[in-house]
């Protein structure tokens, strides 16, 4: 029997497929019962270093960390014939300071970033140059206004008192495991929606209702993650297949929610026939004649703000609570500190704290910082390159290379944070005279650094402290036995399996 003949294109395509299969078999079959070992990627013909990426996709953050440790915080990843996969990967604080601050103009988000995050439109996270500057100036004016700051404080306190504490009290009586990550994301979703749109979707209620907009945001974040690691995502988008198909559906859900909310807000203002400025950000943007009130601008702006506020803060609280279950001595210190802060009581007799009083909580703030250091809500950043540039580490960066910054890995570099870098140690954030210790933002990158430093940092800490203090003081968590904690495939560092816990009232624990 004659063997079928292969054309040159078919033969060319079969080579990388064969190499990928061999690599897959070696790492997933022959080594599946071994502890993971991370080796410095080797460049292979045609496929470059892609087999290493694919075989370590389930533990991407661990693989990047292991590789960066061996390469002294920097290595070059080459994708072979795969377009857009030539990366300079770094967790070096000096490089980060140079890229984000010293030579900021040479490292824009770039066209590729804009294409990957196309669902964000022309909002503040995608835009560069003058468009970015004008949006940032306006957002900073609105977010820093005393009226909006007071709105953040009141909304955070109300949501904790009226929704979070009653839900956890109910869960403690049921004695059934709950997903605390889902609870935290619902909490921050409700607060953020209130701050941006002026409406409370009440997703954090006893029945845990499904909110299509929140679910669509989750689907979008997962799809955007895979766009970073799957070279053929553009083809899948064109064919409307796989995660790209799910993203297209989620995109429509997000747009429908925003469009309907904008229409309702305009109708309310028209019906009220009032010039009174409402405190939510959407009302402020609609009232502002300088930014314009076209629907696309409002849509892009609000979606960007929702991403910044909801997912990052919810993820940060979730990892903080899990770390407390693994470090009870830290929980005890937080309780001791909270006992000295003025308290008030809900109608059910639970303790609640005024967010403004929690500015005195040095140890709680340090513990939150430490959780954000170990599990940064945005685990990696990437930048484009305009011109050739020599980095402080000695690497020459050229246009066409994408710079990837692993904030997750930087927290685990002994050269950056010391030999105890992998430990949850709030004390590293406290000075000898019991003050919060300053760490440069290019080393602690959870709120970005340089000109793009997060405008909502204070708002995030207000929400996190209000929730964390009330949760810790009133309740006690036990992680369900056998529950596996691992990062989820998403551009936001969430837990893949959630945080399954049993809730107990503190007095009964």
Morphology call? globular
User: How many H/I helices?
Assistant: 18
Please tell me how large the radius of gyration is.
24 Å
CATH class: Mainly Alpha
- Structural class assignment: alpha+beta
Domain count? 1
What distance separates the N and C termini? Answer: 75 Å
At CATH level 3, the topology is: Cytochrome p450
Please name the fourth-level CATH homologous superfamily: Cytochrome P450
Strand content: 5-15%
Major sheet attributes: 4 strands, mixed
Number of strands: 11
Describe it.
With 509 residues, the protein is of the alpha+beta class. It has a single domain (86-508), classed as Orthogonal Bundle (Cytochrome p450), CATH 1.10.630.10. The protein has helices at residues 8-30, 50-55, 60-70, 93-102, 110-116, 129-143, 146-174, 180-197, 212-229, 233-239, 242-272, 281-287, 295-326, 328-338, 362-374, 407-410, 414-417, 457-474; strands at 74-77, 87-90, 178-179, 344-345, 351-352, 380-383, 389-390, 396-397, 402-406, 475-479, 500-505. The strands form 4 sheets. Strands 1-2-9-6 form a 4-stranded mixed sheet. A 3-stranded antiparallel sheet has the order 3-11-10. A two-stranded antiparallel sheet has the order 4-5. A hairpin with a 5-residue loop joins strand 4 (344-345) and strand 5. Helix 14 packs antiparallel against helix 15 (362-374). It is globular, with a radius of gyration of 24 Å. Residues 1-15 and 25-33 have low confidence and may be disordered.
């Amino acid at each position: 029997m004659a063997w079928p003949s292969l054309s040159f294109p078919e033969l060319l395509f079969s080579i990388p497929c064969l190499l990928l299969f061999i690599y897959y078999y070696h790492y997933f079959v022959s080594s599946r019962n071994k502890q993971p070992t991370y080796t410095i990627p080797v460049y292979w013909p045609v496929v470059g270093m892609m087999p290493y990426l694919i075989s370590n996709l389930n533990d991407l953050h661990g693989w990047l960390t292991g590789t960066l440790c061996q390469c002294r915080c920097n290595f070059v990843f080459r994708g072979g014939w795969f377009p857009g996969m030539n990366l300079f990967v770094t967790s070096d604080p000096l490089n980060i300071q140079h890229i984000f601050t010293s030579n900021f103009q040479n490292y824009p988000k770039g066209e590729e970033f804009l294409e990957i995050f196309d669902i964000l439109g022309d909002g503040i996270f995608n835009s560069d140059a003058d468009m970015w500057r004008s949006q940032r100036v306006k957002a900073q004016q609105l977010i820093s206004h005393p009226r909006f700051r007071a709105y953040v404080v009141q909304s955070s306190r109300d949501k904790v008192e009226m929704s979070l504490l009653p839900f956890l009290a109910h869960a403690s009586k049921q004695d059934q495991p709950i997903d605390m990550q889902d609870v935290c994301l619902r909490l921050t979703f409700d607060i953020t929606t209130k701050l941006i749109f002026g409406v409370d979707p009440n997703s954090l209620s006893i029945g845990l209702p499904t909110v299509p907009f929140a679910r669509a945001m989750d689907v979008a974040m997962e799809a955007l993650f895979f766009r970073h690691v799957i070279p053929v995502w553009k083809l899948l988008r064109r064919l409307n297949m796989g995660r790209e198909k799910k993203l297209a559906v989620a995109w429509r859900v997000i747009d429908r929610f925003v469009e309907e909310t904008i229409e309702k807000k305009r109708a309310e203002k028209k019906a009220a026939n009032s010039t009174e400025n409402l405190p939510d950000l959407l009302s402020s943007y609609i009232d502002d004649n300088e930014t314009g009130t076209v629907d696309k601008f409002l849509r892009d702006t609000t979606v960007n703000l929702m991403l910044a506020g909801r997912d990052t803060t919810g993820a940060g609280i979730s990892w903080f609570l899990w770390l407390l279950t693994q470090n009870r001595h830290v929980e005890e210190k937080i309780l001791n500190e909270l006992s000295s802060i003025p308290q008030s009581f809900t109608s059910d007799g639970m303790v609640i704290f005024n967010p403004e009083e929690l500015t005195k909580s040095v140890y709680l703030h340090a513990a939150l910082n430490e959780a954000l250091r170990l599990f940064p809500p945005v685990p990696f950043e990437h930048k484009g390159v305009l011109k050739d540039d020599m980095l402080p580490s000695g690497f020459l960066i050229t246009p066409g290379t994408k710079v990837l910054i692993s904030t997750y890995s930087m927290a685990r570099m002994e050269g950056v944070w010391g030999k105890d870098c992998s430990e949850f140690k709030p004390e590293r954030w406290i000075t000898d005279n019991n003050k919060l210790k300053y760490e440069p933002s290019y080393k602690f990158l959870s709120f970005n650094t340089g000109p793009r430093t997060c405008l909502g940092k204070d708002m995030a800490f207000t929400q996190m402290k209000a929730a964390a203090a009330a949760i810790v003081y009133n309740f006690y968590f036990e992680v369900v036995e056998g529950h596996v904690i691992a990062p989820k495939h998403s551009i936001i560092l969430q837990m893949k399996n959630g945080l399954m816990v049993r809730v107990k009232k503190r007095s009964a624990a």
